[in-house]
Amino acid sequence: MAERINRDTRGVYIIAATPFTDRGEIDHDSLLSLVDFYIGHGVTGLTILGMMGEANKMTGDERRAVIDTVLSRSGDLPVVVGVSDAGLANLTDLASYAMDKGAAGVMVAPSAGPAREDRIEGYFHAVCEALGPEVPVCFQDFPLATGLPVSPALIRRLSQERDQIVMLKHEDWPGLTKITQLRKQEEAAGVARLSILCGNGGLYLPQELQRGADGAMTGFAYPEALVQTVALHHAGRVDEAEDLFDRYIPILRHEQQPGFGLAVRKYVLMKRGAIASAATRAPGPKMSAVDAAETDRLMARLEARLKG
């Protein structure tokens, strides 16, 4: 049984893509291969059924099938399951299924609605009540996707009042000041530590680590870049961590194109042998021949840069 996430969790919890066939069906063989690929590159854990995992395009049965496939392969590697849903009953049902199967925790984003903090606060209390105190929760703070800014004060208050909210997936942008504020709060007596793993493709990972983040919870077709950057930073080799990370910036930036980056990520994963097809589920972005050639060039330049 994998260790559950807690307030001291750190490392790289890679956001796993969901492989599809060219006909739009979940490719479970490629999903197994992808888990092996991530494990082979040294990730600390996996996060499945996130926004970039295209969970919103899946049926409930498909989500359960993805959980089954991943957990059948992950062994002792912790797996966090995204369970955000428009309906609280659907959310708690999927979370219960995931935890019963051996998940390390669940990830929940604020529900759609007015951008009022009292509403978001009430929602997370309702979620925690429904899940029960034994289910560790990662609070997904991604205002660019949800349209719901959340203050450090609210995140801290929820984490203090609900022991099971042990982790923040930090994806605010710009958000470095938020990390600083959250860590500053922990200097006060009685304030519990909160694990902070960062998203946004890792674009700002070196700076986020320097501000006090514990690692990354994001997707990138070169997971080893995230793993090695975090490991070097935790070893106190801060400049080396940033120097290594800088080599990947051109292709990482290319993969972070809004509305299109997932197609790039899946194409690179396919070229690296992790999955059989670069298909996204409709409606989703598709690579043209020009896009593919452009990405091939970036991959070749990265390879040369790493050898140099």
TrEMBL record:
Descriptive protein name: Dihydrodipicolinate synthase
Pfam families recorded: DHDPS
EC code(s) of this entry: 4.3.3.7
UniProt superkingdom: Bacteria
Signal sequence segment: none
Keyword Lyase: yes
Keyword annotations from UniProtKB, A to Z: Lyase
SUPFAM superfamilies named in the record: Aldolase
Organism of derivation: Cereibacter sphaeroides (strain ATCC 17023 / DSM 158 / JCM 6121 / CCUG 31486 / LMG 2827 / NBRC 12203 / NCIMB 8253 / ATH 2.4.1.) (Rhodobacter sphaeroides)
Tagged with keyword Lyase: yes
Residues the entry annotates as binding pyruvate: 217
PANTHER family the UniProt entry points to: 4-HYDROXY-2-OXOGLUTARATE ALDOLASE, MITOCHONDRIAL, DIHYDRODIPICOLINATE SYNTHASE
Segments passing through the bilayer: none
